[in-house]
């Protein structure tokens, strides 16, 4: 599957953002904490969500999906996550904490490394061990046995997934747990809010230290998945890269401060409650030095978008990717095929802006793929972007949506 992109059209107009993949996956992971109905609105219709729902169904949950509303209820009938489904997405690991807390056991295939990095799960598992769970790693499987006990635990790194799993584990056990050095990404905060709606007792929501007073049972709740800040940044980048003008709607500018600061100092940007307007009349002189780090600092998921912007502007940009070791090199190589001037040493890419031309490109991961589409839209001539199946994991009809802004992009099987 590929996109055929004829670059050079200035994108113009308005486009709305849908619910965040990484929020939906965390909330779906928490549905195992109760047999009551969890109703999620604004749940994106993307492949990762479909696969997460398939996993829950395979383990016994009842799922109804109507447009962007998803209802999950019922008990798990198996605590063994089938490998064929669980390995389709890394988000499958987000059922770990809740399943152990509610059922006292789980067998889960370890997601292993992927094209963006090695992605270990030591923090998730060490946290559970600290809570008294017996963790057995056998080849590419992990088995956990025993209900967790309340404990205080400091994450050695503010991992998003580990914070989410440990919050779920602590929510449904006897006693008080204190989790320190928690991730504070908006998707983590949304999970904390859902847990409270389900009857969990949490304090310190949205901070690095969360205190959880475990309860015996959690109940059903209805919750809106938060807007996808990475999708919003993708649309804004596409507008800017093509020197266009437009408004990205139904997003939350407060969740995108680091990225918006970068744009604001270079383009005409106006933020409203749920909308962001941007107008770009000329490419800037580089984007300075960017270092990726946990929220609220510059997100790794927006790094490949900015690499494409930097590749087609004037002057120099330096990007230091500190979270996922393989996230830079592949896109740098692809962009260089378009005439970009990017060199990578270790975790740092140095990008000297050039005029880009069309080329045959291959997406190897979701966000990197979106970055390549942006570069193709800004380039002169035609590009073919292969590996669209990676992009589809996290974007709803990206080509169609960009077309509504005037992009010449079509999907080809
Ligand atoms: N890490 C460890 N040990 C662990 C867990 C993480 O060393 O036990 C390391 C990772 O290797 C990485 C860093 O900690 O270097 C950050 O990883 P984190 O656990 O925070 O990431 P994640 O939970 O695996 C989520 C998103 C990613 C996003 C990152 C960072 C989901 C399903 N995925 O992954 O999203 O890049 O947080 O914000 O929530 C994407 O959407 O394309 C994507 C990759």
Describe the 3D structure:
The protein has 14 helices and 23 strands. The chain is an alpha+beta fold and 413 residues long. The protein has a 4-stranded mixed β-sheet with strand order 21-22-1-23. Strands 2-14-16-15 form a 4-stranded mixed β-sheet, with helices on one face. The chain has a 4-stranded mixed β-sheet with strand order 4-5-3-13, with helices on one face. α6 (160-171) links the parallel β9 and β10 (176-180). The longest helix is centred in the middle third of the chain and has 13 residues, at 229-241. The mean pLDDT is 96. The chain binds uridine-diphosphate-2(N-acetylglucosaminyl) butyric acid (EPU). Residues 21-22, 25, 90-91, 117, 119-124, 157, 159-162, 183, 185, 299-301, 323-324, 366-367, 394 line the site of uridine-diphosphate-2(N-acetylglucosaminyl) butyric acid.
Unreliable segments of 5+ consecutive residues: none
Our estimate of the beta-strand percent is 15-25%
How far do the termini sit from each other? 4 Å
Question: What is the number of helices?
Answer: 14
Described by strand count, sense and barrel closure, the largest sheet is: 4 strands, mixed
User: How many runs of DSSP E, i.e. beta strands?
Assistant: 23
What strand line-up does the widest sheet have?
21-22-1-23
Oligomer: single chain
Please give the share of residues in helix: 25-40%
- Estimate the global geometry from the Cα principal axes: elongated
Hetero ligands: uridine-diphosphate-2(N-acetylglucosaminyl) butyric acid
Given helix and strand content, the structural type is alpha+beta
């Amino acid at each position: 599957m590929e996109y055929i992109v004829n670059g050079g059209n200035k994108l113009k107009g308005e486009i709305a953002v849908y619910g965040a993949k990484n929020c939906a996956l965390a909330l779906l992971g928490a549905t195992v904490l109760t047999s009551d109905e969890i109703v999620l609105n604004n749940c994106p219709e993307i492949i990762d969500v479909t696969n997460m729902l398939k996993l829950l169904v395979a383990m016994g949950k009842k799922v109804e999906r109507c447009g962007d509303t998803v209802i999950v209820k019922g008990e798990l009938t198996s605590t063994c996550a089938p490998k064929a489904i669980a390995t389709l997405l890394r988000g499958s690991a987000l059922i770990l904490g809740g399943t152990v807390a509610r059922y006292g056991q789980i067998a889960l295939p370890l997601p292993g490394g992927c094209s963006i990095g090695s992605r270990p799960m030591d923090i998730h598992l060490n946290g559970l061990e600290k809570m008294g769970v017996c963790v057995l790693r056998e080849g590419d499987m992990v088995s956990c046995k025993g209900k967790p006990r309340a404990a205080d635990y400091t994450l050695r790194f503010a991992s998003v997934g580990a914070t989410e799993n440990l919050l779920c584990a602590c929510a449904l056990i006897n006693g008080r747990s204190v989790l320190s050095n928690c991730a504070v990404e908006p998707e983590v905060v949304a999970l904390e809010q859902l847990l409270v709606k389900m009857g969990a007792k949490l304090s310190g929501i949205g901070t690095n230290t969360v205190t959880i007073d475990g309860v015996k049972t959690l109940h059903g709740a209805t919750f809106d998945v938060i807007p996808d800040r990475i999708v919003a940044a993708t649309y804004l980048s596409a507008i800017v890269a093509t020197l266009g003008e437009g408004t990205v709607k139904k997003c939350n500018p407060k969740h995108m401060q680091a990225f918006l600061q970068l744009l604001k100092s270079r383009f005409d940007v106006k933020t409203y409650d749920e909308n962001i307007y941007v107008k770009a009349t000329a490419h800037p002189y580089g984007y300075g030095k960017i270092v990726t780090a946990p929220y609220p600092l510059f997100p790794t998921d927006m790094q490949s978008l900015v690499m494409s912007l930097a590749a087609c502007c004037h002057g120099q940009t330096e990007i230091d990717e500190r979270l996922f070791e393989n996230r830079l090199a592949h896109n740098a190589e692809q962009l260089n095929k378009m005439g970009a001037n990017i060199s990578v040493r270790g975790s740092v890419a140095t990008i000297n802006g050039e005029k880009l031309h069309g080329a045959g490109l291959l997406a190897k991961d979701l966000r990197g793929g979106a970055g390549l589409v942006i570069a193709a839209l800004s380039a002169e001539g035609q590009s073919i972007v292969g590996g669209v199946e990676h992009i589809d994991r996290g974007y709803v009809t990206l080509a169609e949506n960009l077309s509504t802004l005037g992009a010449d992009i079509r999907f080809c099987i």
